[in-house]
Amino acid sequence: MNRFLKFFILGMLLAATASAQDAHFSQFYEAPLLLNPARAGFVNGTFQLTGVYRSQWKEVTIPFKTLSGTANVNVPAGKNKNNIIGIAVADFADKSGDAVYTINHFDGTFSYHKNFGADFNRYLGGGITLSYASTTFDPTVLMFDEDFNNGTNTEIIGSTKSSYFDVAAGIEYNELDEDHHLNVGIACFHLTQPTVSYSNNAESMIYRKWVGNVGYSLPINEKFDLLPRAAVFIQGPSNEVIFGSDVKIKLTEGGSTDYSIYAGAYYRVGDSFIPRFRVDMGELSFGLSYDFTTSELKKVSQTAGGPELTLIYIGKIKGISAGRIYNPRF
After folding, report:
1. Which of 19, 168, 270, 291 suits a disulfide with 189, CB 3.0-4.6 Å?
2. Whole-prediction pTM value?
3. What distance in Å separates the CA atoms of residue 152 and residue 78, rounded to the nearest whole number?
4. pLDDT tens-digit profile of 151-175?
5. Is 197 in a helix, a strand, or coil?
6. Which CATH superfamily is domain 3-315 in?
7. Strands, DSSP E only, in the chain?
8. CA 303 – CA 58 distance, rounded (Å)
9. pLDDT tens-digit profile of 3-31?
């Protein structure tokens, strides 16, 4: 194996070790299971279906594309149906680079939230996620030194696929009523520290990733709500801090159908500025954000990062009542 191939495999293993191993979204609260397994079950209806698509670095190289789909179910539990059982399944896919390096992540999550407090408006819960992940790349599109010297490539690549099982866990506190919603959580991903390998002689352990999140819904008046949010991701030598706020504008008052618009801005420290817009139309929500690069990469990307789209459907199953649970759109 020549030096180029060794560096190529090492580079991909390092990428797998870093935050690129995990799905990466600017609208992080629209992908709650990436924040904390304990967020399974905290949905507005009986169930919630969420799709997120992200594309970035189109101006610099072949775009990195990330797609996720999540089904999240809320099941009332306990004697008075005030507790919450959360069940969720998710699929995350990343495609990046000239070699079409692809990561597929399949997750199953279970959570339980205990209701307490004099007003039955507080929840303390925990969740666990079991995952299966597979990674692949296409070596046929790679160029080695032999391709330039004599046109014959004799490189032997041991494997183009790798897979592993993984575990994540988290806890979260929620306090909510008709006027506000506070949530604070902490989670750890890659608890088993699995390894990724494409050769018998080289493998890389995935660092544990710690995630902390906080969010608050604060009414300004009858028409406007302020929704500040923040999250911290720490994984080995890498870290990410993102914070910002939306302003929710209520277009309808009362009734069974909610029509609202959101406008907000977020900042990923040392990396990007992110304006965001969202529309709630009854059971459907549509969100759009765009990353404007603020790091050194702005010199080659012309400040462009990439768009991110979200689509959410909230459903209710007849006969399943949430009791006294109130789940605001947050």
Report:
1. 168
2. 0.81
3. 68
4. 555 555 656 788 899 999 999 999 9
5. strand
6. monomeric porin ompg (2.40.160.40)
7. 47-56, 64-77, 83-96, 101-116, 122-136, 161-176, 181-189, 195-199, 202-205, 209-219, 224-235, 238-250, 259-268, 272-281, 284-293, 304-315
8. 11
9. 434 444 444 443 443 334 577 789 999 98
Average pLDDT over residues 139-144: 61
Pairing mode, strands 161-176 and 181-189: antiparallel
CA distances from 297 to 58, 98, 100, 329 (A): 12, 19, 21, 35
Cβ neighbors of 310 (< 8 A, separation 6 or more) are 27, 30, 50, 51, 52, 53, 278, 285, 286, 287, 288
Strand 202-205 vs strand 238-250: parallel, antiparallel, or unpaired?
unpaired
Structure tokens that stand for 208 in this block: 């544990």
37 vs 128: CA distance, rounded Å: 5
Cβ-contact 4, 147 below 8 angstroms? no
Q: Which two tokens stand for residue 4?
A: 């180029």
Query: Which token pair is 146?
Result: 């032999």
Contact 289, 27 (CB under 8 A): yes
Is 284 exposed, middle or buried, given 0-12, 13-18 or 19+ CB atoms closer than 10 A?
exposed
Coil/strand/helix, residue 12: helix
Q: Of 30, 33, 126, 35, which is closest to residue 83 (Cα–Cα)?
A: 126
